[in-house]
Amino acid sequence: MPDKIEKQIELKAPVSRVWRALTDYREFGEWFCVAIERPFEPGKPARGHITYPGYEHVIWQVVIQQMEPDRLFSFTWHPYAVDPNTDYSNETPTLVEFRLEKTATGTRLALTESGFENVPAHRRAEAFRMNDGGWTEQMKNIENHVTQKP
Amino acid sequence: MSRKSHNRRRSGPAPQAVLFAALGDKTRLALVARLVSGQPVSISQLTAGSQLTRQAITKHLRVLERAGLVRSVRAGRENRFALDPRPLHAMQTYLDRVSHHWDQVLLRLKAFVET
Tens of pLDDT along B17-60? Predict the structure, then answer.
């Protein structure tokens, strides 16, 4: 049973382009759907309102960890921390890492999210609730977005 | 969404948080692997061929039992232990959801950098 999430995606874009999309706070905000307030800086928190329709009341908040140009970008956060009435600050966050690698056709991006063993039980239940319905709608939106902007 | 797995969510005190902790140990993972066949196994059987003492095995089994991963069944004079896979399914479902979210986010990134 894995206790982390690992993804890999091949991007037809140079490493430097992907690096910018990941670490420029405005660019990151565009595809992640969040209006981030100021540039990313290692060791510093980053936050902003989710721009995804229906989730605008949700504050997205992370702490930037590593920024090794063209190689590694990481932050810690609380997955599914979407209830404005809940204080998540006492919970152990998960670590999200993006690793970049040059390929013949562009960039291989490897994503890892680890530390789920520390996510409290009631939050898992909440994550299930938040996903009820929400994701179905969101999937449709994403599908539209991707097909309109191939 | 193809999986409607929230139906499987257990009511009452959710044991999911302790699952990862219970499994985050080589010995306990090995015990789970041993029990995966579904047949109840006695502590003597689990101790045989192991470096660990009966007490140590028992302690690990109790941790798995508290996480809802293992049930003990009385068989004559001894307890036998069997795997209960349901909490594993619940945990997998949670990770599937987070994983699915990342799939969507990465697709948006792909569209963003490739245009």
Answer: 667 778 778 888 888 888 887 788 999 888 887 888 999 999 99
* E runs forming strands in B1-115: 41-42, 70-75, 78-83
What CATH architecture applies to the domain B16-113? Orthogonal Bundle (1.10)
Q: Given A3, A17, A111, which is nearest B24 (Cβ)? A: A3
3-class SS string, chain A: CCCEEEEEEEECCCHHHHHHHHHCHHHHHHHHCEEECCCCCCCCEEEEEECCCCCCCCEEEEEEEEEECCCEEEEEECCCCCCCCCCCCCCCCEEEEEEEEECCCCEEEEEEEECHHHCCHHHHHHHHHHHCCHHHHHHHHHHHHHHHCC
> pTM of the prediction?
0.64
* pLDDT at residue A143 tops 90: no
Cβ contact B99–A146 (<8 Å): no
- For A116, the closest of B9, B95, B105 (CB atoms) is B95
Spans of all domains in chain A? 4-148
**Domain residue extents for chain B:** 16-113
For residue A44, the distance in angstroms to the closest alpha carbon of chain B comes to 23
Which CATH number is A4-148 given?
Answer: 3.30.530.20
Which ipTM did the prediction report? 0.73
